Structure formats: C-alpha cells, structure tokens
Amino acid sequence: MLEPTAETSESRVDPRVLRTRALLRTAALELASERDADTITMADIAERATVNRATVYQHYKDRDELLLAAMESEITALARAAARCPLAHPPDRMPTELVELFRHVESNATLYRRMLGPTGTARFVNRLRDLLADEVTAQLGTPGARPSEAPPDDLRAHYLAGAFIGLITQWLTRPDRLSAEAAAAAAWEGLRRAS
User: Fold this and answer.
1) Where are the domains of the chain?
2) Dihedral sign from CA coordinates of 181, 115, 155, 133
3) Which of 6, 23, 69, 177 lies most in the core, judged by the most C-beta atoms within 10 Å?
4) How many whole angstroms separate alpha carbon 165 and alpha carbon 119?
5) Dihedral angle at the C-alpha atoms of 26, 32, 35, 36, nearest 10 degrees?
6) What is the pLDDT of residues 126-166, one digit of tens each?
7) Cα(105)–Cα(159) distance, rounded to whole angstroms?
C-alpha cells in the first residue's frame, strides 16, 4: 500500500477547510488594512470572517501566523518584483523594474505600512527579508559575479535585503512620502553604493 505524500495529502484537503482558511485570510487582510496589526485579535478575525473563534484556532495557532499566511501572496508578489530588479549588481542607469517594484508597494501602501511599521509583525518582516535575500542570492550566484574579496553571498544578500526593507519602511512612514519614482531612485543609488 502506498503511503500518502505531501502532494496527495494536500490535494485531499476538504474544500470546506480551504474555504474557511480563505475566509480567515481575507478577514485578516481587511483588518490589517484598517488598523495596526497589534490591535487585531483572533476574535476580531473570527467576527469578520463570520466563524466561531474556536474555528480560527483549528486552522492557525495565533494571530501572527494567520497574518503571515494572509500576507504570503503579497510577500511572494513583492519577491517576484524584486527578482526582476538587478539588486545585486545595479547597472549604470536605474532599471524600470525597480520603479515597478515601488509602484507595487505604493498600490498596497497602507497594508505594507502597517505590517512593516512598529506595530507590524516580526514574522512578516523576517519572511519578507528571507525571500528578498533568496532573490539577491540568486543574482549573486551568476558566474563571475563575486570578487574574491567580497563577503560571503548569504551575508551580502541579507545586508541588501535588510537595507531594502528599511528603505521601504522609511519611505512608507514618512509624513511627506516621496513618489514611487523618487523612492526607487533613492533605492537604486543606495544599491549602487552597496554593491
């Protein structure tokens, strides 16, 4: 008899479970867009999703895990946008992909500001940093990309990812927020100096 694999187990998830998780993630995202993450409770999410609070705990162990699951597609979209940008070896001219990345963040500014700001969640920031660092590491892995005196790729990747998140966070929380184009130009200049 064949043992069930992760793939076959995943494909056998009850559709009601998938619907409930989707409801919970949607409710969490809506609430995160409306107010600071540290003010959102599991009861708030349950009420917004119109489910019992015990149901929320059947699917997620705590609010931060649920918020991270809800933000996963947004984090992945940002990492994909970053993958199109030459983060490790910026060219002489600012790439249009970097402006597109900042426009993506700008279109979801409230959500990113809340999740990256002082009342956001560390899990979100760590997940975003790790995905961005993975993209930078992939760019650093190109042949001849690293001079022999350069620091190890993983340290450099996390440095660039952390700096990028810091820049986005500062940009989003400024009272006189720059345009996406101006923020991209600042990021590009910083990346050029760091590379």
Assistant:
1) 64-194
2) negative
3) 23
4) 15
5) 150
6) 989 998 898 888 877 755 555 566 678 888 888 888 988 99
7) 20
